[in-house]
Structures are given as C-alpha cells and as structure tokens.
Amino acid sequence: MYADRFSNILVVEDNESELGLFCELLEDEGFRVIGCGSAGEALEHVRRHNFGVAVVDYRLPDLTGTQLLEQIHTCDDHVRVIIYTGAASYDSLKEALNLGAFAYLEKLSDRAELLRHVHRACHERVERYALDLERAVAGRTEELARSNRELETFASVVAHDLRSPLLTVSGYCQLIHDELGDRLDGKAADYLEHIVDVAARMSRLIDDLLEYSRAGRSREPFRKVDMQNILVLAAANLEGLIRAEQAQVEIGDMPAVTGDQTQLVQLFQNLLDNAVKFRRREPPRIRIAAEAAENGWRFAVEDNGVGIAAEHCERIFQTFQRLHGREYPGKGIGLATCKKIVERHGGKIWVDSALGRGTTFYLTLPE
Description:
Blueprint: E1 8-12, H1 16-28, E2 32-36, H2 39-48, E3 53-57, H3 65-75, E4 80-85, H4 90-98, E5 103-106, H5 111-180, H6 186-215, E6 223-226, H7 227-237, H8 239-244, E7 248-251, E8 256-259, H9 261-277, E9 285-293, E10 296-303, H10 334-344, E11 349-353, E12 359-366
Parallel strand pairs: 1-2, 1-3, 3-4, 4-5, 7-9
Antiparallel strand pairs: 6-8, 9-10, 10-12, 11-12
Helix pairs in contact: 2-3, 5-6, 6-10, 7-9, 9-10
C-alpha cells in the first residue's frame, strides 16, 4: 500500500447510501476513509488531516464540487481531487479540469473505474512526494556543500591571518638573536627562547585546527586501499619520534578497505603518535591488529602507556580535551580529528583503558 499519509481518502457525498457504499468500497481496498456530506465538513477535515485523494460529488448542498475543489487546493494543493457526478456535462468537465481536478467521472460508470483512478491518484501523489523530497535533499546537500566550502575558505583565510603576525614575531626574534645575541643576558635569552617556542606552538595549533576542520569533508574519492601500506606510511611519518622513544611497533596482517588514503594515514598516525607520547618509564610497545566485523573490519591499536581513567573515555574525542599534564605534548585535537575521519568513513571509534595499564583504541571501517 502507499505511504501512510497518502492512503487517507476523503469522500464527500450528500447521499448517505452512496456515501456508505463508496466508503466501504475504498476501505475494502485497504484505504483509510473519512466520509462527510457537505463541503463545510470536508474543509474541516482537510484542515485537520493529511489526505492523498478526495472523491467529491459535483452537486453538494453548500458548494459545487468545483468550488470545493478550489477550497481544498487553497488548504492543500497536493490533494488529488476526483470529481464524481451523476449529471455530467461538457461545461462542468471543462471547469473541473481547468481548476486542476485529477479526474472527472460519471456515477453511472463502473465502480472499478473509480478504484482505478483512486489508485492512480495515490500512486502519483507518492511519486510526486518522493520527487519533491529528492529535490529538497539535493538542494540541502548542495547548500551544505556550499557552506562547507565557505567554512573551509574562511578557516584558511583566518589561519593565514593568524600565521602572518606569528611569522613576524618569530622573524624579529631571530633577528634579535642573530644581531644582539651576544649582548643579551641569560634571562633575556630565556625570554626570547620562550617567545619563539610559544609562537611555534601557536603555529602548530593553527595547523591542527585546520586539519580538524577539513577532516569531515572529502579530499579525494574513496577507493580500495591496502591498510598494510597505510600503517607503514603512518609509522614512517613518525620515524624520528619512534626511534627517539625506542618504541616497538608491531603490525599484524591487514586487509584492504574502502576509504580516503590521505585521511586514513592521518588517522593511524594520530593514534600511533598518542601511543608513543603517552608512555610510562618503559619503552612504548604498540600492537596494531585487524579482524573481520559486520560489514567491514575492526582495528585495534593497543599500547602499554599511562592509560586513561574510565570516566574520561568519552571526553577524549572532544576538542581541546587534555587529560594529562603539560609534561606530555599536544593540543587535545588529534583524537577529535580521528573521530571525524572515522565517522566520515561510516565507522565508529571507541577506547578501552584504565590508568596505569595501557590503552586500546578500537575502530571500524567498511570493507
């Protein structure tokens, strides 16, 4: 049967026996039917309910069928109105069709003809609704895409405008160091070094925010990618950090998945970076594994680091959430970026951890 809201049929007929007959006929076909004997009652029903089709007698005590047709379309111009008359004429036929009647039938015609037109009207109404919905979704999608493009442009402009003064500050600090360095006392040299360090951290924060703003949007079309290569690239990008911290990274057998290669490298690079940074005294040990899951694969990135308190496991995927002291570098954006990347790929990401016993990040990706 048709979508629920379009299975509602309004029958307007002042002859009680015929009204009962029409209602029973349509109910036997599975429609929900409301019957009434006047145009006034009909308009009250139209204002209170959604109808797919109205079957209207041409001769009513308060209005003609075509006058009621106009009134119905004033309330809801999507209702398909079928004029049903026992006194057909060329003039009334012409008037009804000019006013937008879906069909004009004689009461003497076969009742199967009425049913055929009601079914056709409901079917057309559903198709029109689906088309309108498709157009609305397409328009909304284009609007969102345009908004995303504007936001990305805005973010890039803001990042540029923020970087310019930072570069100026860093440049002048370098000039002071080069030209006046031998005349600076120890405290002034420390101040200068601190300014340079803060400017560098601010620049990295701007880069991280830009990366986060882009994480939920398309960069390149999805395609089959070998996760073994993705993880090798992610580890290679962190080679200096891994070597400096004497970390051991074990990568198990990896499948191929469908996704954005650049973002998947960034995803696992962020997870590896966290696993290495949030270490205990012993060297970091990181194990990455994959197993088949419903509609795709489940990946696990396990480490032996400091761990996360259970009550903070949801917060860590929010922006600017730093759960450890300043002895650990970071801005609290990396895991929020991971979440956006995973969700863009249609997956989920979560964590299992406890303080002092390491952390395992789980995520799913489509096959």
